[in-house]
Amino acid sequence: MQPTEPMQRIERALAKALAHSEGGGGPPRLAQAMHYAVFPRGARIRSRLCLAVAAACGEDIPALTDAAACSIELLHCASLVHDDLPCFDNADTRRGKPSVHVAFGEPLAVLTGDALIVLSFQTLARAALRAPHRLATLMLIVGRAAGAPLGIAAGQAWECEPAIDLAQYQQSKTGALFSAATVAGAAAAGHDAEAWRALGEYLGEAYQVADDLRDVVCTPEELGKPVGQDETYGRPNAVQRLGLDGAIARLDDLSRAAAGSVPDCLGGVALRKHILSETQRLLPKELAVRAA
Amino acid sequence: MQPTEPMQRIERALAKALAHSEGGGGPPRLAQAMHYAVFPRGARIRSRLCLAVAAACGEDIPALTDAAACSIELLHCASLVHDDLPCFDNADTRRGKPSVHVAFGEPLAVLTGDALIVLSFQTLARAALRAPHRLATLMLIVGRAAGAPLGIAAGQAWECEPAIDLAQYQQSKTGALFSAATVAGAAAAGHDAEAWRALGEYLGEAYQVADDLRDVVCTPEELGKPVGQDETYGRPNAVQRLGLDGAIARLDDLSRAAAGSVPDCLGGVALRKHILSETQRLLPKELAVRAA
Question: Which residues in chain B have their CB less than 8 angstroms from residue A78's CB?
Fold first, then answer.
């Protein structure tokens, strides 16, 4: 039997998780809005990273890895729905279609985010009925990345402070879920999880730099969401700080640092290769020539 | 050593849970808003119910009971913060003070709710490091009461449907957390949890009827929040459906049904007494004479 491709595993796990929210006589539009927020897929970068780390660690309970990856992806989707709300970015589009509050109204967008956060934890709990000894650790990893003081909710909340701690802001808003992806991937496979945190932190920063580059050089059609948002909202952007070439060089450095940080493990060589190719794909097409 | 009073246990568990969100270099205003949403206390009805059931079951890991009760109370607080938002009830006051979005702004109110939901699950996970075999069950109980299709997020989402399923609406919006309180109390004590669901359902409906009565007969000063909200928003209200005396009689019936549903257990007699006295306290003072 061929091993299932990571993207198939993720889509299947997400569909299975969502199915639990859709049945049972609940309000149909909430179920539709939750589905709309999760499908069709984005790049699934965080959940693929989680699977890649678990594979490198020689995962022994694939259903638990899938649940960990799914849990992280659901949190990511929840954060996008709430970040797009009128009281935050007020973004009308996401992944090339109307954002959830535009399509379903603001009340359902708030509840969709809430229910996806809950579903993230439910998904872990369902899978862990078969691996109870790993559940608390996984929950604490995912919870740390989601809430306060260091998770994505805290990251977004830095925008509401009179003085922003920039490093903390980016680490919480973007880095936290990347770290959770690597750490949870290892924990799902029963490995020493914290040794994998540095990898997630490097990749989170790399992704942030790439996102900053896209916000500057891409069109809304390419991204499926508004561009120039950082300038509009006066948010920090690596291109503004380092210049275009400086930001491209920084992305390259982070990519190498990430690959170099992979702890010794069964599939370490393959994982390092995977990381270098994935981080190259982060660079907007317009800039690939410039970087070559 | 005297056993600690339930209310003290709850306040202590909540303070301990909140402390995890407050340290660690996170955004200070988010931490303040989370604290503001949880303290000073409301009646803590759901968490006291959870402790009462666990005690009746002869709880063997009090720290786990405390975490379960705390987890349910945090979800309740999160739902109040989100329900008060301008896109839902647009309520300016709660527990006699400005609601969270009035005091801290709408963005922080959204994030406060999010972070409290996450904290609810983190609290269970932290306590369960000492009782891993009960964590998945507790998480599934709490998750069911929080999300879709049957939890409080789903309950609130019925307000966004073109046609409302009234029984489902009330069961999800109010009943779900009461059921979670009784079922989780039993599960924390290692008992057959589902046998306790009927008790939670009766008490949830009793609380709903009492809430409907208060919305009709109390002043905003007595409640610490706006009154007449059901009429304003065209929401179902038991007084409108059954009349004032009918609603009072219904509350009495539900109170007896709840006491009668308590499964056989070590502390069953005391729990039945507790339930009858608690449900009597639900009746607004103005109506106590009328009911006597």
Answer: 114
pLDDT digits (tens, 9 = 90+) for A147-206: 999 999 999 999 999 988 888 888 999 999 999 999 999 999 999 999 999 999 999 999
What amino acid is encoded at B161 in this protein?
E
Contact A159 B87 (CB under 8 A): no
- Chain B residue numbers with beta carbons less than 8 Å from the beta carbon of A87 are 105-107, 110
Total domains in the fold of chain A: 1
Q: Is residue B1 in a domain? A: no
- Residues A274 and A112: their CA atoms lie apart, in Å, by 33
Specify if B232 maps to a domain.
yes
Give the amino acid at B180.
A
Domain assignment present for residue A1? The answer is no
Would the CB atoms of A148 and B119 count as touching at under 8 Å? yes
Question: Is B244 contained in some domain?
Answer: yes
Instruction: Count CB pairs under 8 A between chains A and B.
Output: 227
Tokens of B287: 């109506």
C-beta atoms of A124 and B104 within 8 A: no
Q: Which domain holds residue B95?
A: 6-291
CA distance A13 to A79: 19
Q: Do A148 and B27 touch (CB under 8 A)?
A: yes
Q: List chain A residues with CB under 8 Å of B87.
A: 105-107, 110
Question: Half-sphere exposure of B252 toward its Cβ, with a 13 Å CA cutoff?
Answer: 11
A108–B157 C-beta distance less than 8 A: yes
CATH, residue B190: 1.10.600.10
Instruction: Count CA atoms closer than 13 A to A41's CA, side-chain side.
Output: 17
Q: Give per-residue pLDDT as tens, B29-73.
A: 999 999 999 999 888 999 999 999 999 999 999 999 999 999 999
Write down the pTM of the prediction. 0.95
Query: CB A110 to CB B88 under 8 A?
Result: yes
Q: Which residues on chain A are in Cβ contact (under 8 Å) with B108?
A: 157, 160
DSSP letter (8 states) at residue B196: G
